[in-house]
Amino acid sequence: MRVAVLKEDSCQPKKCNDECHAFCPPVRNGQECIILDDKTGKPHISESLCIGCGICVNKCPHDALIIEQLPSELETDMIHRYSMNGFRLFRLPTPSKESVVGILGPNGMGKSTAINALSGRIVPNLGDWMDKEADWDGVIESLPRGELRDFFVAVKAEKIRVALKPQNVDRLPKRVKGSVRDLLMKVDERNMFTEMTEKLGIDHLLDRTIQQLSGGELQRMAICATLLRDVDVYFFDEPSSYLDIHERMRIVGIIQELSTTKRVIVIEHDLAVLDVLCDLIHIVYGKKGAFGIFTPARSTRQAINTYLDGFLPEQNVRIRDKPIKFLNHSDRVAELGSQVVSWGGLGKTLGDFTLATGEGAVHRSEVVGVVGPNGTGKSTMIKVLAGEHEYDEGWVTSDASISYKPQHIDVDIDGSVQLWLDSEIGPRWRSGEFNVNVIRALGVDELLPKRVKKLSGGERQAVSIAICLGREADLYLLDEPSAHLDANARMEAAKAIRRTMEANEKSAFVIDHDVYFIDIVSDSLLVFEGEGGTYGKAEGPFKLQEGMNRFLQGVNVTFRRDHDSKRPRINKSASRKDREQRTSGDYYSFNH
Ligand code: ADP
Ligand code: SF4
Fold first, then answer.
1. Domain shared by 60 and 186, yes or no
2. CATH number of residue 391's parent domain
3. Is residue 589 in some structural domain?
4. Strands (E), 19-138
5. Is 5 in the pocket of ligand 2 (CB under 6 A)?
6. In a domain, 446, yes or no
7. Ligand 2 pocket: which of 45, 60, 66 to mutate (most atoms <8 Å of CB)?
8. Which of the listed residues 231, 251, 267 is the one where a domain comes to its end?
9. What is the Å distance from ligand 1's center to 535 Cα?
10. Which ligand is located closest to the Cα atom of residue 4?
């Protein structure tokens, strides 16, 4: 089966010479393989006449075309196709009774389309994009007997109600006005307002307006609003962004409890969270913006190991060139350079909040992971080190220049990504090591013509990381770079940060709550403890394992190692391993 997709955003007929049409061999032989639209000038590509030579893909100056050959057995599994050369989705995840079903894979591969189909908001056209009258009977007949088919029978009878926790909670303040209490009261169909707001730890925020909430608070409010609805299927799209590990673990417990009576589907890129949360996982793969294929559900452990390995044996498909590997950190040869900055006994009071630190230093080429609860002063401390904040007590040796990527990326550029890059870092992104190690590695090269306003959360994050790394500075501070990036992009971002620091002998602080990401990016760990908004204490940097042991002890979570992939896995609370590791203080085990 041939798939020809036109990326509408990239196609710019006014800025090309119709290369696709001019060079297409069937067109040159008089066949109407590509027809240029009378009005828009954009190509319509006939998949039946296309011979798959790929000439148009190479000739298009804006990389607007994708031509792929897919296995023909997929043909009968097409669920939806938006237009002649539009995105198409193959197969669906199954919302199973009394289970948390996870979806693992990049954004842009049809999970919103899948959610819209499962919730009855769109009637899937099974590939017949011209059929504007597709009905549920066709969908039901196309599916084999089983849970998914039964589910659609209920969708057809309008017996399925759904609730969705949207991905980008940072957009909520622009869309919703009023107090947290008003918003949550309105959706309290289960009569659980008091219980849920307490469980999510937002009961002290009820009189605030949505505009006054931090990222983590917005996330918990959005999760609460979803839980209060009385529906049949609950979708949580990236529930962990902006939450610290303690909060992530709390959400895991609440969602698992919900799944004892309801169907739950979760899209999550923090693999440690996905691992401990889900009963089953569907991997989704494909080509961004072109097509997405859901695989049948696998056990959680098997799905994540397969994903990291990068090869789907049942489908015989490689989804990544190389496996993602976890190193035993004692194997990592640390060659740290001279000190960039050192400090001791810092004290800083900001309003009702007080920060204190131990003694520490950061070296050239060192990446320091920064972990700890929200609101304990992580960004405040880094800004003190960079000389951006005064301090009340203690000492700091230098005021190194800093390049900062904030948690929330507010950008008001009415232009393309290319313009954004040029205006922030000049022409240096266009070539050299930076272009290979950062721009390409983060997939920013594919976003260049896209309007900044149209970027998804993950795309905006990738460009912001590139801009932060592209500035001249001594210290790089990245505040939650993993947010909205998919699991694969997180690993690429971790590598891009490491490579930039090693190549330029610079230092970075990376604040993040994704343990896999921290494990891959960090040489050492700065550990924060305390009470959010009241006080914070920073100790370290420690060697990674020592830092993790301290940090996880504070959160009360233990990790074992998967015996095949060597990835860290959260132990079930009070399981034998959990008890053993707690007793021995081995919270982040390399041996179990
Ligand atoms: P983290 O990065 O760990 O979330 P921050 O450094 O952002 O922590 O902030 C720690 C605490 O300091 C927060 O609870 C915040 O309310 C408070 N805070 C930060 N900046 C100011 C300020 N300029 N005035 C008053 N309080 C502040
Ligand atoms: Fe024409 Fe297909 Fe070749 Fe593109 S890939 S030039 S559409 S035959």
1. no
2. 3.40.50.300
3. yes
4. 34-36, 43-45, 65-69, 78-81, 88-90, 100-104
5. no
6. yes
7. 45
8. 231
9. 10
10. 2
408, exposed or middle or buried, with CB in 10 Å at 0-12, 13-18, 19+? Answer: exposed
459 shares its domain with 375: yes
**Atom nearest to 57 CA in ligand 2:** 4
Q: Measured from the CB, is residue 50 less than 6 Å from ligand 2? A: yes
* Gap from CA of 49 to ligand 2 centroid (Å): 8
Cα–Cα distance for residue pair 372/537, rounded to 1 Å: 10
Of 279, 274, 213, nearest in space to 240 by CA: 274
Q: Are residues 483 and 576 in the same domain?
A: no
Domain identity same for 419 and 507: yes
| Ligand 2: residue whose CA is nearest its atom 8 | 50
Residue owning tokens 């307002």: 193
Q: Do the domain assignments include residue 392?
A: yes
Note whether 61 and 207 are same-domain residues.
no
Same domain, 386 and 443: yes
Angle between helices 487-504 and 457-470 (to 10 degrees): 0
Beta strands 311-312 and 317-318, pairing class = antiparallel
Number of structural domains found in the chain: 4
* Last-in-domain residue among 191, 216, 231: 231
Atom of ligand 2 nearest to the CA of 52: 5
Binding site membership of 407 for ligand 1 (Cβ less than 6 Å): no
The residue among 548, 556, 541 whose CA lies nearest residue 520 is 548
Model confidence, pTM:
0.88
Give residue 176's domain range. 172-231
Contact between 558 and 587 under an 8 Å Cβ cutoff? The reply is: yes
Contact predicate 560/573, CB 8 Å: no
Q: Which ligand does the CA of 388 lie closest to? A: 1
Separation between Cα atoms, residue 273 and residue 275, nearest integer Å: 5
Q: What is the pLDDT along the chain (592 residues), one digit of tens a residue?
A: 899 999 988 899 999 999 999 999 999 999 999 999 999 999 999 999 999 999 999 999 988 999 999 998 888 899 999 999 999 999 999 999 989 999 999 888 998 899 999 988 899 999 888 887 778 998 899 898 999 999 999 989 888 999 999 988 988 988 889 999 999 999 999 999 999 999 999 999 999 999 999 889 999 999 999 999 999 999 999 999 999 988 999 999 999 999 999 999 999 999 999 999 999 999 999 998 899 999 999 999 999 999 999 999 988 999 988 888 876 665 455 567 788 899 999 999 999 999 999 999 999 999 999 999 988 999 889 888 878 888 999 999 877 888 999 888 878 889 999 999 999 999 989 988 999 999 999 999 989 988 999 898 899 999 999 999 999 999 999 999 999 899 999 999 999 999 999 999 999 999 999 999 999 999 999 999 999 889 999 998 999 989 999 999 988 899 998 888 888 999 988 899 999 999 999 999 877 6
**CA-closest residue to ligand 2 atom 2:** 50
**Is there a contact between 441 and 498 (Cβ–Cβ < 8 Å)?**
no
Q: 5 — phi, psi (to 5°)?
A: -125, 135
Instruction: Write the Ramachandran bin of 387: left for phi over 0, alpha for psi from -120 to 50, otherwise beta.
Output: left
- DSSP type of residue 326: P
